[in-house]
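cron nightly-structures :: item 1 of 1
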Amino acid sequence: MAAMLKGEDAAPRPPAIVSYAFEKELINRQNRFIRLYDSFLPSLKRVPIAIKFWSKYDSTAAGRSGLPNFDHYCALVEKTIAEGPRDRYPEPVTESQCYGWHFEPFYRYEGRDFHLLYHPKKRSPITLVGEKINADRITQRPRFAGVPFKLTS
């Protein structure tokens, strides 16, 4: 009886009958987002790794006959590989480009300006007091004074 309640021995149900209009609406909705392209231009940011003899975008003579702007495409690929982000944009576009964008220092330091970067720690009576305070801050943790936890068997 318990097995019958869970549905283990019950007969499988037939699939639900769906109307033709509902199925047609589903198919039309899916077909709305399908796009077929006849012309294709490969990514200009990458160089093809392997030469494929069956590809019409290849650098062989057979590939050139199928692609009308082959020389223009090759020039675009060489241009994008040769130029970096500094050539394309006047200033950094993303935050990760900000680091290293300006490769020349803003101010050139000379030998006489060494004291601007070097600040040795000077010891005085005030700094000695601060050192003692910082040394006293590092203490051991106090022992646990609460109720001990014991397992009873």
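cron nightly-structures :: done
Residues 20-57+66-136 form one domain.
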